[in-house]
Structures are given as structure tokens and as C-alpha cells.
Design brief:
Strand order of the largest sheet of chain A: 17-20-21-14-13-22-23
Low-confidence stretches of chain A: none
Helix content of chain A: 40-55%
Oligomer: homodimer
Radius of gyration of chain A: 25 Å
Number of helices of chain A: 19
Distance between the termini of chain A: 25 Å
Chain lengths: 558, 558
Amino acid sequence: MTQSAQQMFDLHREILDQAVDAISSRSFWTPYPESMRKYPEDEVKAAPTKFDSLLNQPFTLNGVGNSQQVGGEVSPYGFELGITYDQPDTKATIAAMQVAMRDWRDAGVEARVGVCLEILARLNAMSPEIAQAVMHTSGQGPMMAFQAGGPHAQDRGLEAVAYAWQAMTQIPASAQWVKPQGKHDPLVMDKRFHIVPRGISLVVACSTFPTWNTYPGLFASLVTGNPVILKPHPGAILPVAMTTRVAQEVIEEAGFDPSLVSLVPDTADAPLTKELALDPAVKLIDFTGSNVFGDWLIQNAKQAQVFAEKAGINTIIIDSVDSLKSVTANLAFSLSLYSGQMCTTPQAIYVPKSGIETSDGHLGFDDVAAALAKAVQAFLSDNDRACTVLGALHSMETQARIDECRGLGEIVLDSEPREHTQFPQARIHTPLILKVDAAQKAAYSEERFGPISFIIATENTAHSIELASDVIREKGAITLGAYATDEAVVDQFEQLAIEVATPLSLNLDGGIFVNQSAAFSDFHATGGNPAANASLCNQAFASSRFLVVQSRRHAQPD
Amino acid sequence: MTQSAQQMFDLHREILDQAVDAISSRSFWTPYPESMRKYPEDEVKAAPTKFDSLLNQPFTLNGVGNSQQVGGEVSPYGFELGITYDQPDTKATIAAMQVAMRDWRDAGVEARVGVCLEILARLNAMSPEIAQAVMHTSGQGPMMAFQAGGPHAQDRGLEAVAYAWQAMTQIPASAQWVKPQGKHDPLVMDKRFHIVPRGISLVVACSTFPTWNTYPGLFASLVTGNPVILKPHPGAILPVAMTTRVAQEVIEEAGFDPSLVSLVPDTADAPLTKELALDPAVKLIDFTGSNVFGDWLIQNAKQAQVFAEKAGINTIIIDSVDSLKSVTANLAFSLSLYSGQMCTTPQAIYVPKSGIETSDGHLGFDDVAAALAKAVQAFLSDNDRACTVLGALHSMETQARIDECRGLGEIVLDSEPREHTQFPQARIHTPLILKVDAAQKAAYSEERFGPISFIIATENTAHSIELASDVIREKGAITLGAYATDEAVVDQFEQLAIEVATPLSLNLDGGIFVNQSAAFSDFHATGGNPAANASLCNQAFASSRFLVVQSRRHAQPD
């Protein structure tokens, strides 16, 4: 191990131990504060200026030759970033990474963990700046871009490192094996066990959470010895490029080849992901994105292990509530946050057509629908707050989808555009809420990405559960929220969650939201329904990324 | 948990803890003695009679209706078993197993572990009887059938249980998550975490090691909550059927549905494996067998996770030795054991054409080849011992292959038939050893299953390493043995092992053989070359078989 890698490991050892404790206890913990006030005020204030200074010029990284320039990011807040990036030759990049892999592999577990934790620490310090890049590529609001793009993403990276550390250190470096032979001398074998990476790891980043969804695969692969190609979404390159730069700096300081983390950006017109995914050297693929492409990877990239998070029909079932006001306020936030562009945002809300019981008495189906609409309206009544929470729509397609979906049901709350004070060109649209009958399955059982949700009139809660079960089995889901005051019904929800392998949030009516999952405690997706084939993070996510190669020989004289 | 499952868990708790220690320390340990003398003498003596009493009649198991009878096993020792087995309707079987899965899942980790350890304990007690069934289906010799078919197979099952226990208990059943909110009250969430099976597990057993290669998948899947379909090779049903019967008895005693382990035998004329493997309910597949079928499963059974052990070109590289006599004696045993029908038997032996250094001075290539031939001849000179070690050839194809391969090189040692005293019809053949030039790659780089090996004349050790590297990268290997007296060369072998992800045995010249791997200490295959995509057993082998489904809600008042 190089001296600087050792220093990095020693410096972060305590955080590592705490992270390992946290993934076991699954209680609240984080080393990366989510409050912007915990970061130096100067850094926070300087972030927009630093971001501006990156615009309209090339963003340089370490990379092999033959590169051409790509770029073309446009902020959903209405301006062109004008940044260009080197697009290295893919074959040459992979060849260089394969060479670099050896030293990285041979450096050992502590060196790799030290380097990864130092990368995370530096990313954390840069959170205000990364937030700007996340905001102006994904369209997230500034607060969310800071939290989800910075500390929460770093949490997920650290979680992956902790799982990998646990898995790798479970294997001893050496062992002596002494087999008794009755009256004869025992057989004594000296054994060595090497942690060996699988090969090149490809992490395909998405446009909506360019860091949060990227860091688990990046860090799980890198820390287990695999060089990582980061292939950003053409519309959200900058946050991934900034991450790459930090990773390359730390890797180089620690005495390794910076190409161990390489950025390979592409364009919508000339995408490179398929070519990269089918390269025989690529043995691990992490992907977040559409079902079509995720399924393509699983079907075609046979030489690789694919960890895919795709889309699903996130679900809310309402049976009964204490305070409908608290519940609708909670759901209003969930439906509004980042304009429904989270992979965890609810889309299908099942309510019995006969209505529900509340602590204020029985309320009809239309009362529930109206209460939700009213809660969203109230929550978004202050335009500044609305713009901050909604963020901007990442793509024109999402904007168009709102119009396309208006006819799918009866409008409970129409979507309306909003104008951002600072960025008047920003694509900001409030949620569209439709009500439909249970029979209109085609409407609500397709993913309608964006601020679009359906309140579905069912026969009763048993029917809601049945429909949710059918839809999730077929289409998957990453979140399931449910409301009931009767514990017997709560038990039915718990059973449903188990049957459809979807994490359950029960009776959320306060400051916790169904679309948020906390690192070290909440497992994001289960891998057991069509929305994802892996969970972020768990033991399998980390331990599948390395091999153990052993050697054995008769015991050597000391 | 049922009372009897609890009792089973309590009874075997100590063994479980010891097994967990063993997989971490990787030192020698086993609760299942490999010496027949440690088993009751009466049981050992009665085993052949008990085996005879099973012949020429139906072997009954728990199963769903619509069954027809299949059978047709022929002992490689020259007689028909005459046993028939129920072949249940596959759809009905899967449907029944899916229903049974719920109670099994909800019973919890300790109940499932208790049941699995009790199954293993009963299998251990039956080892003498199971050895008879393994011998007369696989063709293994009696000692090997006992050890590999009994205690060593049980070790591998226990190892899988230990890994799964470790993985499952790493997840707490519940947690309280307390997030500070500055001056306000903290957010407090109560969380529950459920271990949820993936679905139906299909374990496709092989003809040569019907228990050893079956128990890891069987126990890893069962203990994590997945019902298991055992699909035996049509030529080696009995050992799997006996295992199924024991499993069903224990499962039923513990209060669960015995169909949780179901035998689905088929015939060579009407195979069922593809149909079973493509069933949407089947989520896990363990397979040992040919590359063609293993690759078919990986390409086609997309709904399932496939753990495949296939074939490879197991390799020996000789650079230099202390005592050539000790080395060739060691290799003679490895080449003879079970007539080379182990997935770990060496096939390609690389030796520099200029010869090697030994403690007796330089020896030419032909000297080395002749010494190996002589060692095999000497080892097999006693016909009784030869028959015991060689066992019988499982299939006519393997017998025919010996003839087909004679022309592939210059014969160093010809294969000859042997006559077994007790079973004169047994298919017993000694090893065929050929010498070839390095350029005759087509000869030695195809798997020649059976007692067929090649001594390959290379330019020098660097050339040997280069050839071995090329062949293993392309075709895979499960074992690599190497000999050198110079530690610098030993280091090159260690690097080769790491690069081609193959376990290395160095300078074996005593009582340890390259084709033997010890549970709890040696990882069998790495999953990192074409011979296998998984390792038996490691964390990934167990932790990929279950999901974690969580629920969370605001903390409830006590």
C-alpha cells in the first residue's frame, strides 16, 4: 500500500467503523450533514459563481488520446451550459484501465477503502458546488440538488464502501489448515486468499439523479478493485464529470493511475452505452433508467452482471386515516417534490369508491380526491416555495406528457406552469391529478413519468390490495405507501409488501415522505419486482463484484 | 416458529456457530467425519443390504398428483437398479410449492436453519447407505462415494447454511431510526425488515457428484426461504431421491409442507430441465454440467439467477521439482481418482521440452513423461486398489472417448480395461496419457472428459504460463496445479492464478491432491473464468438468494 493511501485509510477509519455499525443497526447515522448551514458559509455563497466559471468552455479530465469533444447540456432552468468534454476512444480507454487494474487490485483492501473514503470526503466538501451542477442538469430545486446530489448521494457511496469492506474483510488474507491424521503428523497447508476484481465496471448514470444513483455502483465497484467507466446521461454530464475529476485527483495522489475512474460521455445522436455494455472486458454494469434499456442490458450484456434500477408504478393505498389533512399534506409534498421525477414518486393512489373512515367521520371518495387537490394547491400557493420544491422538468418529453395524459381520466387538479423569479425560462409545472375507475387500468398501470398521478376508485380496500398486487407484480414498484387505522388492515399491507417485494411506508402524515429513503437504514428497492433487479445497497450488491482466488501449499518451514 | 423447528435449531446451534467460525478462519473443521470407522459398524455393514432392498421397486416420495413413473438407472458397475420414481406434474408441483413457501418464509431464519441442520445431521447418519447409492449411479469407488457423497457433500451443505445464516442475521428484524431535528423533537421511525425468498429454486444435479454438487444450492436456497425442485440426472436419481426423502421427513416433522423440497426426475428421451428452467416462478437455478447447457441456461432463463458450474481445462504446470518421484506419485493419484471424472481432474500438463530441474539433476521432457506414466502404472499395479480408486466410468460416451482420443498425440501410457472382482461388468479403465506439442492446441484445449490427459511440450515455463493463460481465459478451469523450486517462479504462478481467476495448488507432492477441495477452507471455483460463474460457497452465493422487504412507520406509543 502506498503511504498516502495508508494515510487516507487511517484518516477515515473511524467513519468506516461507524458506517459498518450503521448498516447493521440500521439506525440513523450520517457523517455528511444534510443542512447547508453545516458547510462553510463562504463555500455555499461562492458555489453559483464557481458553477458559472465552468460554463462555456471545455471541462478537462485525465483520459487517453483520440478524443473528440461532446457536450450540449441545457439547464432545465433555461440556458445552455456550453461545456464540452473529452470523449476518449473507448477501446483505448478500456485497455488502459485493464492495465491500471493490476496495481489497484494488488494495493489491497485498505488502500482502496482509504482512497474511496477520501474521494467521498472531498465530494462532501464540494457539495455546494456539486448542487449547482445537479440543479442545472437534472432540474432539481436548489435544496434537493444540495441534499440528494451531495450528502445523501455520498451516504449511498459510503454505504456501498461499508458493505464491500465487510464482505472483503470476511475473507482472511491467509490461513493455516491443519488436518489431523490420527497417529500420523497432521497435514498442514498454508493458504493465501486474494480479493480479485471482476473486470471493467460500467456505471450508466441517469439524468434525474446523476450522483445519487451513480455513487453506489461507482464506489461498490471501485473499492472491490474494478476500474469504473462513468457513462453520464448526455443531458447531465457535469455532476458526473466533477465526480470523476475528484476521483482522479485522489487516485493519482494515492499513487495510482487516474484512468481507474474514466468518464466516457456521449450524445443522444451517437450513444455509446450499447457498445460499452457489450465489450467483453466489461463485467459489471450499473444502470438507472428506462425499462426498455434496462431489459436490453439484462438480455444482451451476458458477459456482465447487471444491476438495473428501472421504472415501476409506485403505489399509495388509502383505507382509513386519522387526520386526512395531515395525510394529504404529506402526499402533497410527495407528489410535488421535483415534479414527480423521482423513481420513488407515487403514481397510483387507490381509494375505495365508497370513501374512507377518518377521525372526523366518514368521507366520500370525491372528498378524499378534493382534499388531496386542495392540499397540493395550498402547498404550492406560495410561488417561490413552489418553484423551489417542484424544480424544473428535466426534459421536453416530460412536459409534453402532462398534456398527453390530461385525457386519461377526470381532472381533479390540473397542472399549471409557474414562472421562476430568477430563471423565467425554467420548465416548471405543478402536478396533474386525475381520478379514474379501477377498470381504467391502462391509464394508471403504465408509468407516466413526471408530475402525473391517478386516484383510483376501487370496490374496497381488499380490491385496492388486489389491484396494487397485480400491477406491481407486472410492472414493479420502488415504493408503496399505505394508510389504515386498523392494525388488521395494516397487517394486510405488510403482507402485500412482502408478496410484491416492495418497501412499505405506513401512515406517513408528518415529516417523513414515501419518496425519501435514508442510507444505512432504508433499503432502496428490493430487487424482487420488475422495477429493479438489485437493492441499494446490500451484501449481494457488494459481494458479487469481486472474486476470491486462493493458493495453497504445504506449510513452509519458518 | 414451531416447537420442533426450535428444538432442531437449539440442538444444532453449536455446530452452526463453529461453521461460521470456520468460514471466517478457513482453518480445518468439520462436524461430519470422513472416516468410515467413525460411523456405527452395524450401519456400515448393513448399507449394501439396505441398498439392495431399494432395488427393483418404486421409490416413493411426497408429491402432487398426475404422476407417471420414470426410472432406468444402470449401475456403472454393471446392473440395472430397476427403481422407479414418481414424476409429478410440474405445474401442479410449482403451484403447491408456491403455497408452501409462505409458511416457510414466515417461520423465520432460526426455524429454517434448524430444519436444514437437522436434514444434514440425518443425511450424515445415512452416509454409508447414501454411499452405496452414489457408487452405483455415479460409478465412484466405494471410499470416494462415501467421503465425497456423504460427509464432504454435507460439509458443503453446511457451509452454505453458515453463509446464509451470516447474511440473513446481518439484517436486524427491527430498528428504531431517530433523526435529530435541531431544537425540535427528533423524527422517530419504527422499522421492520423481512427476509423474503426470491421464489422457486431449481437445482439441476449431475451424474458424477449427485450430492456434492447439489447440496450447496439446495441448502443455500432452502435456508433462505426458497422451495427447491431437485432435478436429478436421469442416470443418478437415487442419491437425490434419498436426500429428498430425508428433507421431506424433517420438514414435515417441523410442521411444514414437505413439498418444499420436491424431486422432479425425468428421462434422457423426455427431459424436463428446459421447461422447468423457463418457468416464470423459477427465480434461482443451480446447475452442474456441460458448457453447452450451462450457457443455454444463462442465455435463456432470464427470469432466474443462474449459478452454473461447467467444464474447463484443468491445468498443471511443471517448472522444476524437488523429488520427481513424489510429484508423479501425487499426480498419478489425481489422474486416477474416479477415472478423471472429477470437475477438478487435471487434463493439460505443461512441461518445457528442454526438461526440468530436479534435486536429482536435470531430467528431459521424455523422462518426465515416462516418470508420470510409470507412477500411474505403479499406483494401479494392485488391481483391487486400482478398481477402488478408479471407480467405474459413468457413461458409455466416456468409455468411447478414450478410443476417440488415442490418436490425438503420442501415447505415453495407454488406457487399459480392468476387471472388478465383485462386479465383472463394471466399466473400469485406467488413464490414457498422451504427449503433444504446444502447437497441437486443438487436442488439449478441448475438454476430454474422463481418464485422458496431455503432457504438452512447451518452449519454457514462460511459454507454459502463456499457453495456460490463453486456454483458461478461453475455456476456463476449476483447478491449477504448479511446480517450481524457485520462489520467483512461484510468484509468476500466483500471478497467473490471479489473472485467470483459478485456485492454485503449489508443489503438491504428498497427501493433498489438486482435485480435492476442503469445505470451509477452499473455495471451489471462483466464478471468474468460463468454467463457472459462481463459487461454492461464498457470501454472494448465499446473499443473492433472498430479498429484504422493509416497512416503516412513525414510532408507536409503547
